């Protein structure tokens, strides 16, 4: 609301205000400081000579200045290789989902993709005798403890359709 109101005031009588600004006389510029004019220095060679003259007293003082810098001794850490990876992370191919190019192709061992997680949870729910925790751990390269907690705490959604008679009762 505020934007509309400010736009009305901003665009009110724009053409006449622009003509008024354009028709005004240009203000005269402020006078420049006399030392800022380079043409005045060209007429005075003594000033130019003073600028380029070397002062022997300052030169000798400058030669007496001596700066010595030393780097602190380098300390080698005993466990210097802690941050370097010991080995490359092993990856395994995923059981591809239905999205094709958008699916994740490789997953590190010990982890699963979302599609795989939903698939194994659904398989375990439909056929718990076939898809046991041990078989899932072996199939997806997971630890048995993690698979047991996954099966215990995560349950896939189940769609239930109620007959029309019970819908009226609900």
TrEMBL record:
<protein>
    <recommendedName>
        <fullName>NADH dehydrogenase [ubiquinone] 1 alpha subcomplex assembly factor 4</fullName>
    </recommendedName>
</protein>
<dbReference type="Pfam" id="PF06784">
    <property type="entry name" value="UPF0240"/>
</dbReference>
<feature type="region of interest" description="Disordered">
    <location>
        <begin position="18"/>
        <end position="42"/>
    </location>
</feature>
<comment type="subunit">
    <text>Binds calmodulin. Interacts with NDUFAF3.</text>
</comment>
<feature type="compositionally biased region" description="Basic and acidic residues">
    <location>
        <begin position="18"/>
        <end position="27"/>
    </location>
</feature>
<dbReference type="GO" id="GO:0005739">
    <property type="term" value="C:mitochondrion"/>
</dbReference>
<comment type="similarity">
    <text>Belongs to the NDUFAF4 family.</text>
</comment>
<dbReference type="GO" id="GO:0032981">
    <property type="term" value="P:mitochondrial respiratory chain complex I assembly"/>
</dbReference>
<dbReference type="InterPro" id="IPR009622">
    <property type="entry name" value="NDUFAF4"/>
</dbReference>
């Amino acid at each position: 609301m505020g934007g509309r109101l400010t736009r009305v005031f901003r665009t009110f009588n724009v053409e006449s205000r622009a003509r008024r600004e354009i028709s005004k006389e240009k203000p005269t510029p402020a006078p420049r400081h006399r030392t800022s004019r380079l043409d005045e220095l060209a007429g005075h060679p003594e000033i130019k000579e003073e600028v380029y003259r070397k002062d022997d007293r300052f030169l000798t003082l400058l030669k007496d200045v001596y700066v010595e810098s030393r780097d602190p001794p380098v300390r080698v850490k005993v466990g210097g290789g802690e941050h370097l990876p010991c080995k490359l992370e092993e990856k395994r191919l995923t059981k591809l989902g239905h999205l094709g190019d958008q699916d994740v192709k490789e997953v590190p061992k010990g982890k699963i993709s979302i599609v795989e997680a939903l698939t194994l949870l659904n398989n375990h729910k439909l056929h718990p005798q076939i898809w046991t925790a041990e078989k899932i751990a072996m199939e997806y390269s997971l630890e048995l403890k993690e698979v047991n907690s996954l099966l215990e705490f995560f349950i896939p959604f189940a769609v239930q359709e109620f007959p029309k008679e019970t819908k009226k009762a609900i």
